Amino acid sequence: MTQTILFDPLVPWVVIWTLAAITLLSIAAALWRGLSGWALRGLSALVLLAALSGPVYQVEDRAPLSDIVLVVTDETASNQLSDRSTQLAVTKQELTEHLTDRPNTETRWISLADGEGDTGSQLMTAISEALAEEPRARIAGIIALSDGQVHDVQNAPTLPAPLHLLMTGKETDWDRRLIVRNAPGFAIIGEPVTLTLRIEDQGAAPENTPLAPLEISIDGAPPQRFTLPIGTDIDLPLTLPHGGRNVIQFTVPEEAGELTGRNNTALVQINGVRDRLRVLLVSGEPHPGSRTWRNLLKSDSAVDLVHFTILRPPEKQDGVPVDELSLIAFPTRELFLEKIDDFDLIIFDRYQRRGILPAIYLDNVADYVAKGGAVLVAAGPDFATADSIYRSPLSTVLPARPTARVIELPYQPSVTDLGQRHPVTADLGDVSTWGRWLRQIEIDQPQGHVVMSGLEDRPLLVLNRVGEGRVALLGSDHAWLWSRGYEGGGPQLELLRRLAHWMMKEPELEEEALWAEATGQRMRILRRTLDDTIGPVTVTQPDGATVELTLAERIPGLWETGFEGPEIGLYRLSEGNQSAVIGLGPAAPREFEETMATTDVLQPVIKPTRGGLLRLQDGVPVLRNVRAGRPAAGRGWIGLTPRDAYETLSVVQSQLMPPWLVLLLASFFITVAWMREGRR
Q1: Which residue ranges does UniProt annotate as crossing the membrane (predicted)?
Q2: How far apart are CA 302 and CA 504, in angstroms?
């Protein structure tokens, strides 16, 4: 039972205090005038004021409620290092006994696991969720059994009771980690990109040599070893070897005694891109198709185009002096001898031998292809003549021979069965809707891959590899009809774009390729091939274990499967003569970025609650009761605040001054005051 006097005023408190002031002034005036009844009149006024304040006598029937203590046990990966899990288990057992012996106390145990998506230790989130489920007025204290490495401290709630950190770990712990401070997602092929690395020792590291070895491996190749100073930022220039994804692994060998080697490795994935694609387009004569090629190449901001059109061939004799022509002389020597290696692609568009390019220049072009260059020939009627570019040193690299026949009949280009699997011509849309072309140069003895055919299945587009380079032959000069929308047009721009990019060795257009795309810990493995069947893909996991996966053909030429990586790290894929590497997740998960036990992270949260930060290495602290607002921790002890919470079962209220009593007392005091003053 709890008894309380409450006030429920009949008028606002301002009115009551105003009347009280008037009453006080009246009593003072009566006293000044010497009236003998001033005290009785004051008592009558006091009774009336008390009646206006509405005093109520309240009796409550209360049931006491127990205190609640929240205990969060950090079972994340970083708190399992060394003997921290043993410390955690021993502390849980002793703390359970202490809390059981504390009267009128309930304990809420909260287990904290690794956050989803590599978010680390979400301790504050766990406490917020627990507080949302419990009455805050009953929380006597919050105890965290953790290494102090918390990654959501910015989400700390307002705490109703002291927060204590009982920290695992030892003062002798130390760890070495590798940090990549900056790693761009893209870099230009052939140009150095700078990565900043740092090898750092934390904790009670042994005083050995100030240097540490660093191993660098690109795309799973055997690593190269370097020696770097510890505790210093190192700028490492790196040149990407190829386009597409480059997987670079940095590893510092694990030292004896350090907490973990999981943060000794860093995986960096950088996409290699070309700065500018340099293309030389040589048009033998003006025609509608040359503008199509020019528009295609100029529409790509990444292409540097050098375009020459031969407007006035040497055999043309019209009597106009050369110095009066507004033409640019064709810089044959500069382009085909001095700067030919600067170009990624050379296109001959309806070019024929007219003595402009000597045989030695064309022989240099053939050598350029063998050493890794690319040549595309868009053939017109000139290709079938005696002056054909085929009848030059280029014949050694061209993928087909002209028969000297030019077919002037309408036909609809089509994709061959092999072309359905080739990335240049696969999935170009509904072939039946394509417009017709009106000319085809007959070619035979094709070498390489015939991916498109024309009239009566004659080869139309032939692709081939020569040495380290690539060549393509398009047996028609009427592709421009599609861009003009003739008979509905066709995918002319997409076809020519793919063709140009395949010749420039863009990774996404390789006809034989193996790669993987990662989403979290799951990878999507894709294999592109021109063969009808493929073998299983062998996946080598970071620990060296291998798994063989069977792929299914999703579309012609593209095979696919999925794989869930059991751990974070570098995975190697192989099938036949194709191989690839991919990194799943960060090389060092967030839980292993910082592994040293620390109080620095939680101190700003604990300090306002006057809680404690104690090492479990010094033993499990005892529990004491402390008043709210008082220091809640000391040497070897932590405090809990008794909340004295209760549940109200019933409430009974009654008037402390009923109206009849007020009237009786006020009348009595006024009457007596009047009678006394009357006797005078």
Answers
A1: 12-31, 38-57, 657-675
A2: 13
